[in-house]
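FAQ: What does a ligand-bound record look like?

Like this one, built around adenosine-5-diphosphoribose:
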Amino acid sequence: MARSKIALIGAGQIGGTLAHLAALKELGDIVLFDIAEGTPQGKALDLAESGPVNGFNAALKGANSYADIEGADVIVVTAGVPRKPGMSRDDLLGINLKVMEAVGDGIKKYAPAAFVICITNPLDAMVWALQKSSGLPAKKIVGMAGVLDSARFRYFLSEEFKVSVEDVTAFVLGGHGDDMVPSVRYSTVAGIPLPDLVKMGWTTQERLDSIIDRTRKGGGEIVNLLKTGSAFYAPAAAAIAMAESYLKDKRRVLPCAAKLEGEYGVDNLYVGVPVVIGAGGVEKIVEVKLDLAEQQMFDKSVASVRSLVDACKVINPAFA
Ligand code: APR
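The answer part, i.e. the structure of the complex:
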C-alpha cells in the first residue's frame, strides 16, 4: 500500500514540529510548503538527515508551489502571521483571511479529497473562512484548539493531584483560550469527576478555579516566557493526534472546532465541541446537555466567534 501524504502549509515553528512528529511516527511522506523560499526546503532536508539516526521511513520535501501538495491525504494549515505591536485584531484578521483564501484555492485545486486541520489564529474564524475558500465538505475540515486546551488542563490537573497525565481526562467546549468552556463535571481522574475529587479533599474549588484560569491563559503564559513567538510543541502534538485518528480510522473522541449545523443550538459556525474523528473525517458531533453555568460560558464564546466571522464578512463580502 502506498504511503499516506501529509502536506503542511506553513513551515514555521509549528509546521517544522509537525513534520518532525509525523516523520517520527511514520504517518506518511511529508511536504512542507511555505511562501518563504528556502525555509521549507531547509527544514525538510534537516529532518530527512535525522532519518538514518532516528530510523524512520518518510520522504520529506520542501516546496513553494501548491502543485507539490497534489493528492495530499492530510493537510495541516499554520500559514499566517501573528499579531504584532500596534496591529488591531481586524488588521490581523484581514491579513490571515487573505492567507486562508490563497491556501483554500491551493487545496481546492490540488487536494480536494484531503482531511484538513487548521491551526492559524484567530482559529474559529480562520477555519470557517478556509472551509468557504476551499469548498471542502464541513466534515473534512476542522480546527485544532480543544485538544491543546484540554492537554494543558490535564497537565495542570496531573500536577495538582500528583498522578499520571495519562489518567486525567478533560472535557472542554467553546472557542480557544480565553473562551474555553471547561466542563468540570465531565473531567475526571480515572473516571472520578472533578467535583467528587473536591469532596474527597484532593483539591479545593479555589485551586480548581485557578487551574482553569491558568489553562485559559495557557497560550499567553508561553508567549510571555518565549518572548519571540508562541507555543509550538503542544499545538503540533495536538494536531498530530487528530491527523492520526483520521489516517488510522481510530475514531477517537477529540475536542475540535467543528462546523455546527444546529447542534448546541448553533448554526453555520465553527465552535469547539467533542467530535469523533475517523476515516470519514468528523463522523459524529458529541452533543451533551450543558448546565446553566456551562451554557452561559458557551453562549459568550459563540458570540465572540460570531463577531469575528461577521468581521471577516465585512472585510471580504464574498464570504457572506
Ligand atoms: N502561505 C504560506 N505560508 C505562509 C503564508 C502564506 N500566504 N503567509 C505566511 N506564511 C508562513 C510564514 O512564512 C511562516 O513560516 O507561515 C509560517 C508561520 O510560522 P510561524 O510564524 O513560525 O508561526 P507558528 O508559531 O508556526 O504559528 C502558526 O498557528 O497557533 C497559530 O497563532 C499561531 O497563527 C499562528 C499559526
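Follow-up question: can I read anything off the structure? Yes, for example: The pocket of adenosine-5-diphosphoribose is lined by residues 9-15, 34-36, 39, 78-82, 99, 102, 119-121, 229-230, 232, 235 (CB under 6 Å).
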